Amino acid sequence: MVQIIDSSCHGPQKRAIQENVERISTQTRACWMALSCRAMTKGGWIKGLWCNRVSHFRIACLAFGLIAMFQPANAAQVERGLNIPASAIVGNWYGVGEPDDPSISYIDAYAADGTFHSEFRKCVRNEVVWRQTETGKWSVRDGVLRMISITIDGKPDVFDNSYTIECSAPNEFRARLHDVSFLFIEKRIDKFEFPPCYVGS
To answer: CB 3.0–4.6 Å: which of 57, 94, 106, 127 could bond 120 by disulfide?
Structure first.
């Protein structure tokens, strides 16, 4: 049975948001400590006047921290996984859904030598009713995955498709087909092996 590793494209974004929260928390803490009354001159009206003002400044520090904490993380942090090297795609990837049929499942196997092997299937009432295989060449450049077929079902046949990689994580990537703007979501799997029809298409 296919084993999908538990990791997704949400990972980089979650990490970026967490880093943003930690950074803002550190800045807020530093601001708070810098405005500590204990750092001021002891006694006299100067300390009293300063501490009255400090209370307002420290409230401002907290307000700044709360507002900044809920701002979205820097776009460069969230998108840092996009222009990935071709080596990050190498392996077996499982997905469900094609532009003309959302029930079709598939496995794409990207080899390090730039070749790929894909298999598609459709299940009806727990039985495989359609199957297709493809082989060809693949490459990644500037965040775009390109796949050029050599054979379909063992016979010479050519298609040339390009996909913009919208999200990349170690065990998931999302790529949008240019021609019809269809988003493919693929999960990394250990083996080139489909789940039973009753588990999914």
So the answer is: 106
Residues 6+ apart with CB under 8 A from 142: 83
| CB neighbour list of residue 29: distance below 8 Å, 6 or more residues apart | none
pLDDT tens figures, 145-199? 999 999 999 999 999 999 999 998 999 999 999 999 999 999 999 999 999 986 6
80 CB neighbour count, 10 Å cutoff? 15
| Rounded distance between C-alpha atoms, residue 179 and residue 198, angstroms | 32
Spell out the domain ranges in the chain: 10-78, 86-189
What DSSP element (H or E) covers 49?
A: helix 44-69
Q: Which residues contact 104 (CB under 8 A, 6 or more apart)?
A: 96, 97, 98, 120, 121, 122, 130, 201
pTM metric for this prediction: 0.64
